[in-house]
Specification:
single chain; 359 residues; alpha/beta; 434 Repressor (Amino-terminal Domain); Rossmann fold; 3 domains; 5-stranded parallel beta sheet; 14 helices; 13% strand
């Protein structure tokens, strides 16, 4: 059966379509109570479903918030999404979700789609990239966001500003102190580890990864340790697994030769990479922390079931998502709180010194 139309509702209620629209689409020009009740009763009897786009035009607000993440299956992004959802619920908004795989070109497509649907605001979560391959995508994304902001949209970004974006109004960034926290992690690990350090990082030019690598190296230097070797791989579990396989082969070769550096301390720049690296070590018969120490970054929820318990840096991921969404509403308290986002180094069993090594 065809859906009922606004014209049919107006005819049954004995009013003009314009009057019916004012009642059902939330216009500020509301007819008298008796007329409004007649229109609502007619709509209910016909099973009329209001047009959300028409309501948005009448209210100058669509009630939609667009969320763009790299991969919603990644616990890091799902935790941020929960925070965004909580803030959107407080604002009476619905969340639209787009996953992009992390390329600025795909993010631009998502921004354009949300803008076309008149989303009131957009939150973007995911590391920015300065890689040459992303140069054109960055420029197109920045232009799309600037156009969106000039038309009244508001944007919240987690981490770093979008490369090249110039909008001064409606733009909000929730900064995360990745470098400082990675430095503190390195200082605490260096206090108990005499072996070499290895960093499993994402691709060069991925700003979140670069910040954490730079901070960890600074922390080692402050502790009087030599720089860690850096292995670049994919910024995901598969990348961590690939790096872990290479490290497993090296550890086994060192053990066979009796080398003193056979028990490295491995810092993966996010937890899913650390999980991948640990899985690769286990697949080669190596044990953590007996044969290698492993640490990550983010403290994703998945770690509750990971054994041995993984040392990491705990970030308030849900709160970060919430602040990003609140910032798009022009919330002054969120602007103040955003500068206070911090984390905590949490050392667990994966970086403990086994008794036989200590002896």
């Amino acid at each position: 059966m065809a859906a009922s139309t606004l014209t049919e509702v107006a005819r049954l209620a004995g009013v003009s379509p314009a009057t019916a629209s004012r009642v059902l689409n939330g216009s500020a020009r509301t007819p008298g109570p008796d007329i409004a009740e007649r229109v609502r009763n007619a709509a209910e009897s016909l099973g009329y479903i209001p047009n959300a786009q028409a309501q948005g035009l009448a209210k100058s607000s669509s009630g939609l918030l667009g969320l763009i993440v790299h991969d919603i299956a990644d616990p890091y992004f799902s935790a941020i999404a929960r925070g965004v959802q909580d803030a959107a619920r407080e604002q009476g908004k619905m969340v639209l979700l787009a996953t992009t795989g992390g390329t600025p070109a795909d993010e631009r497509v998502a921004v354009a789609a949300f803008a076309a649907r008149r989303a009131d605001s957009i939150v973007i979560a995911g590391s920015r990239s300065t890689r040459p391959a992303d140069q054109d995508g960055n420029a197109e994304l920045a232009a799309e966001l600037d156009r969106y902001c000039r038309n009244g949209g508001r944007v919240g970004v987690v981490g770093h500003p979008v490369v090249g974006a110039s909008a001064s109004e409606g733009y909000h960034v929730v900064a995360v102190p990745n470098e400082e926290l990675a430095a503190e992690l390195a200082r605490q690990l260096a206090a108990n580890h005499a072996q070499e350090f290895v960093i499993v990082a994402g691709p060069e030019g991925l700003l979140t990864s670069d910040d954490r690598v730079r901070g960890f190296q600074k922390g080692l230097a402050a502790a009087g340790k030599p720089p860690a070797e850096v292995m670049h791989s994919g910024f995901d579990r598969a990348g961590g697994y690939e790096a872990g396989q290479l490290l497993a082969a090296r550890i086994k070769a060192d053990q066979a030769s009796g080398a003193a550096s056979s028990r490295p301390c491995i810092f993966a720049v996010n937890d899913v990479m650390a999980i991948g690296a640990a899985a690769a070590l286990r697949s080669e018969g190596l044990r953590i922390p007996r044969d290698a120490s492993v640490a990550g970054f983010d403290d994703i929820e998945t770690l509750r079931d990971f054994r041995p318990a993984l040392s990491t840096v705990r970030l308030p991921l849900e709160e970060i998502g919430r602040l990003a969404a609140l910032g798009t509403a022009g919330n002054s308290a969120a602007d103040v709180s955003a500068g206070a986002v911090t984390g905590q180094v949490t050392l667990r069993r994966s970086t403990e010194t086994p008794p036989q090594v200590a002896a």
